[in-house]
Design goal:
Blueprint lengths: L4 H27 L4 H5 L7 E4 L5 E5 L15 H11 L11 H14 L10 H9 L7 H17 L2 H11 L1 E3 L2 E2 L1 H9 L8 H10 L12 H17 L5 H8 L16 H18 L9 E4 L3 H25 L5 H17 L1 H4 L4 H12 L2 H11 L3 E7 L6 E5 L25 H10 L7 E3 L5 E2 L5 E2 L11 E3 H6 L3 H10 L3 H10 L21 H7 L1 H4 L3 E3 L4 E5 L5 E4 L4 E3 L3 H15 L16 E6 L6 E7 L2 E8 L14 H4 L1 H12 L17 E7 L12 E8 L23 E3 L4
Parallel strand pairs: 1-5, 20-21
Antiparallel strand pairs: 1-2, 3-4, 5-13, 6-7, 6-18, 8-11, 9-10, 12-15, 13-14, 16-17, 17-18, 19-20
């Protein structure tokens, strides 16, 4: 039979395409595999160093306790049994890839119609991923992992593979390797671990953070028991032993290394690096990176000092005024005690409901336990950050009152709270940008209306006073609520205010209602503090950031960062608003800061309802900084006027600025804000709001945007003035 060329190519071409494509794909996969030299000499771990902008190493990320296992004789047998029964039961029978296991997982996923579920990676595959490959979740990476595992099996014995794995496996809390994990969690060497502790450590390998008992003791014990069941199933443990050990609770030690001078900033950076590790494929704890940050270590020292000098006596003042006598406060305490009991390790590890109730009764009767709950509830918290308004570089950060602990809630970046009167500058910014001068007057009379939900809202000033007319400058200077509300209702529409706030860096939801004028929509402290930088920086907003550059161990740049910078206000509006915020500092609600800092500055205080939150945000031409103080439980509030922003928050700002500007090591000079060409100072008639003429009885000198230059007063003329007119009264503005 003769095969025609057409028939031949119709058969040969698909075969060539399939085999050619397969060969190209295998070549592509091979390019990502470790070399023979890398297989025989795995990379040693190097610590990642975190640098401040002034060249100080502010922290290191590394594997805790680097002593290594050299022989399986130093590994307790129960640990090996727990590991093999849970992670790789056919470890001594496969050649790097467990084909039966892979097939079983595929069948399981097909039957369950799910692509997620348990994995089938062998210990050798896990070792390949830890030593040579990235952590990206792709089919290509999985295939390279399998190919590398086969290469490892060809190079090393099974025991050597186990030893390598036990020296690099991640157990959480910065512990890599069994030797490190035993010390970090239990303060022991591996040979001293109990069977239950061995099962616990093996259990953490699935997800070290998720199964950390500090995060969820109950979840950690559940995972430990799963490992014990695996040991029963594999024949390493009998059911009697399992039932006995199932009742045991695990208590790990809380030993931590020094938190350094900027623990909350470093953790803020570490969380970003963890996300970047997925993108760039580096290991934060092993690859010896150099991370260059925006932080100034000298400013950070001053921030720490300012916070502690204020908080220590202020906490004592609060403690003297607080009690648990009222029914509402006792209810708060009762709820907190119930929550704390349910999170207690003894409660979560109790075997049944009766045992849990016994634990609960004992804890409720423990004065020490109840006092610890009270202490947590009534601890004053703080969030402080300083930012360069020109560049957006974060220069100092204190995210928590616990300065020796890095993993607590960061009150600069991780909370949202009502800003109170610190939001008012956005309202007045819209008014100024709409052409109104700071001398424009609005009524301070009482007002009431429905708030959109049908409820009647009757806003009040802080002191309850009403009456008279207030200029925009005076309304902001003295933080008059009714004037701010009339501003948003009459000359600065709420929808426009929301747009301006968005442009200036506020990303949280803002309700365009009149109450927005007094800060009822919640914000992130870092966002509202950095937004004031637009006033200091002539209308230019620089988004705050903390990482300048990341380099690998050989100095090659992995990532370079600069701020996202945009113009959000005209120079004229920014300057006029700055002058109004300077009035707040000079005779207004922020004048208390002048006890410490006397240089040119603008700022604003803020206090929310029932003294729940105290704020102060202020700026100089080259530094913007802000403070929030309050409590983690929002039902706990300051008990009186000492909880105002001017008392509870502003002193931290004043101290910080004093220490920074008097530190000769820091190249910051005190300078004033520069008036742009489009702004002039003019004499304004108080009554008509126009340029004053010689007959105007009451005038004020005020800044005017030339774009909105007013006409001359027509209310006061020679004809309307009495013959015995006295010398006109002129007021100048302190700004």
């Amino acid at each position: 039979m003769t095969v025609t060329p057409r028939v031949f190519w119709s058969i040969a071409l698909p075969v060539i395409i399939v085999f050619g494509g397969g060969w190209l794909f295998l070549s592509y996969l091979s390019d990502g595999l470790p070399s023979l030299e890398e297989l025989e000499n795995p990379r040693p771990p190097f610590a990642t160093r975190v640098f401040s902008a002034d060249g100080v190493v502010i922290d290191r990320f590394f594997e805790e306790n680097r002593s290594r296992i050299t022989s399986l004789d130093s590994v307790p047998r129960p640990f090996l049994e727990a590991l093999l029964s849970t992670e790789d039961r056919r470890f001594y029978n496969h050649w790097g890839v467990d084909v039966r296991g892979v097939f079983g997982v595929l069948v399981e996923r097909v039957l369950s119609l799910s692509i997620s579920g348990r994995g089938a990676s062998t210990i050798t595959q896990q070792l390949a991923r830890l030593l040579y490959l990235t952590r990206e979740v792709t089919i290509t990476r999985k295939l390279r992992e399998m190919m590398t595992a086969v290469q490892i099996e060809q190079r090393y014995t099974k025991d050597e593979i186990l030893i390598m794995y036990l020296n690099v496996a991640p157990f959480g809390r910065g512990a890599y390797g069994l030797q490190s994990a035993a010390m970090v969690y239990f303060g022991k060497i591996p040979q001293q671990l109990t069977k239950s502790e061995c099962a616990f450590l093996v259990g953490t390998l699935a997800n070290p953070t998720h199964y950390d008992p500090r995060r969820s003791h109950g979840r950690a014990m559940y995972r430990r028991n799963v490992v014990l069941l695996n040991m029963v199933d594999a024949g390493y443990l009998d059911e009697g032993e399992f039932l006995d050990m199932k009742q045991d609770s695990i208590f790990t030690q809380s030993r931590t290394r020094s938190a350094g001078i900027a623990p909350h900033f470093v953790e803020f950076v570490r969380q970003q690096l963890r996300e970047k590790a997925e993108r760039y494929g580096f290991n934060l704890y092993r690859d010896g990176l150099s991370v260059y940050t925006t932080l100034d270590s000298r400013m950070q020292e001053h921030a720490n000092r300012a916070v502690m000098e204020h908080l220590l006596p202020f906490q004592e003042q609060f403690d003297r005024r607080w009690n648990w006598n009222s029914p509402s406060r006792r209810a708060i305490l009762g709820t907190a005690i119930r929550i704390a009991i349910k999170a207690h390790p003894e409660y979560t590890s109790a075997p049944n409901a009766d045992a849990r109730e016994v634990v609960a009764i004992r804890l409720r009767g423990s004065k020490r336990f109840v006092d610890s709950v009270k202490h947590i509830l009534t601890s004053i918290q703080v969030g402080f950050v300083a930012v360069d308004p020109q560049t957006g570089e974060i220069k100092a950060m204190v995210g928590n009152a616990a300065m020796d602990f890095r993993y607590g809630l960061n009150h600069v970046t991780q909370i949202t709270r009502q800003p109170g009167s610190t939001f008012k500058p956005f309202i007045y910014t819209v008014a100024i940008d709409n052409g109104y001068s700071p001398a424009y007057q609005l009524s301070n009379e009482a007002i009431s209306f429905t708030d959109g939900s049908g409820k009647l809202w009757q806003p009040r000033n802080f002191g309850g006073e009403t009456g008279g007319m207030y200029s925009l400058r005076a309304g902001l200077k003295n933080s008059v609520n009714l004037v701010a509300i009339r501003t948003i209702m009459e000359i600065a529409p709420a929808e426009e205010v929301v747009r301006y706030a968005r442009r200036m860096g506020i990303e949280t939801p803002l309700r365009p209602v009149p109450s927005l004028a007094i800060g009822t929509s919640e914000v992130v402290p870092l966002q509202i503090i950095s937004s004031y930088g637009a006033f200091a920086n002539e209308g230019i907003y620089a988004k705050p950031f903390g990482i300048l550059r990341i380099e690998d161990r050989d100095g090659r740049v992995i990532e370079n960062n600069t701020s996202e910078i945009r113009e959000v206000l005209s120079k004229e509006t920014a300057f006029i608003m700055t002058s109004m915020l300077k009035s707040v500092m000079n005779g207004g609600t922020g004048s208390g800061t002048r006890r410490w800092f006397h240089g040119p500055a603008g700022g604003k205080t803020g206090t929310t309802q029932d003294y729940a939150d105290a704020w102060f945000i202020g700026f100089t031409p080259n530094l913007v900084a802000g403070v929030w103080t309050g409590f983690d439980d929002r039902r706990i509030t300051f008990t009186g006027s000492y909880g105002q922003g001017s008392v509870a928050a502003a002193p931290i700002w004043g101290r910080f600025m004093k220490y920074v500007y008097t530190d000769k090591r820091i190249p910051l000079k005190i300078r004033d804000f520069v008036m742009p060409e489009g702004v002039t100072q003019e004499k304004i008639c108080v009554e008509s709001q126009n340029l004053a003429n010689p007959f105007c009885p009451h005038t004020v000198v005020e800044f005017i945007n030339s774009k909105y230059f007013p006409g001359y007063c027509t209310v006061h003329t020679a004809a309307s003035s009495p013959d015995n007119i006295s010398e006109p009264e002129e007021r100048t503005i302190e700004y």
